[in-house]
Amino acid sequence: MAQALRPNTAGSLFATDGRPHPVQDALLAVTLVLGVVAFVTAMFDGLHLISSWTGLVGILTGAYGQWISETTRERFGLVLGLGASAVGFFLGMAHGGLFGGLF
Predict the structure, then answer these.
(1) Where, by residue number, does the polypeptide cross the bilayer (predicted)?
(2) Residue 7 domain flag
(3) Could you tell me if residue 14 is inside a domain?
(4) CA-CA distances (angstroms) from residue 48 to 26, 61, 101?
């Protein structure tokens, strides 16, 4: 029962192995923010440039985060961010694309 009295001193909310993962946590946060921005802006036709670019960058950061992630909690958050980024990217592409209306 000694483990029940020991405080959790892990340096990360998402690290279940007891070690901090600052790079993975940063990629997780960036992917989630980009995913939310891409998903929300994809609902408006005129914001297709923002949704498609943030979705593309969110997909790339999420893919790299998946590649270097070490715990299941990190991967779970990355999958959520990747999904939102992908939906935002594809809807942005359907509404005009990465360069639609610029040329």
Answers:
(1) 26-44, 50-69, 76-98
(2) no
(3) no
(4) 26, 20, 10
3-state secondary structure of 42: coil
Whole-angstrom distance, CA of residue 30 vs CA of residue 50: 15
Structure pTM? Answer: 0.83
Token readout for 82 is 């990747």
Give a yes or no: residue 45 inside a domain.
yes
Q: Cα–Cα distance between 89 and 22 in angstroms, integer? A: 27
- Residue spans of alpha helices (H) in 1-103: 2-5, 22-41, 48-68, 72-95
**What 3-state class would DSSP assign to 97?**
coil
Residue 10, pLDDT > 60, answer no
Q: How far apart are CA 17 and CA 2, in angstroms?
A: 18
Q: What is the pLDDT of residue 58?
A: 97
- Which residue range is the domain that position 68 belongs to? 22-95
User: 72-95 and 48-68 helices cross at what angle (nearest 10)?
Assistant: 150
